[in-house]
Amino acid sequence: MDDCIFCKLANNENGNFVYDDENVVAFDDINPVAPVHVLIVPKKHIQDIASLEEGDEKYVVSVTKAIKEVARIKGVLESGFRIINNCGVDAGQTVNHLHFHLIGGKSLGEKII
Asked: Among 37, 97, 99, 101, which one carries the catalytic annotation?
């Protein structure tokens, strides 16, 4: 999509990426909520997790690989981290492009579940 900020960022070859492969990129969040706050974004425009279609499996696989590698790069693989995906307005999704927040680098409080 021409007007999608994450499409523009994800497909910018000169981007300052924490991680980059053929399907996804990861970059530091501009408004971090913790010492480590990285966004993992597919290069293909997919509105949200509920919009995944047949053939999009490669993006899901790449996201899961990126999560582990970004956690290692950022030094939180052993200490722990949280993955968040917001799907839709009621969940707090503010950019309509599938993305995952990897957050860590400090204690993140009580268990929710």
From this structure: 99
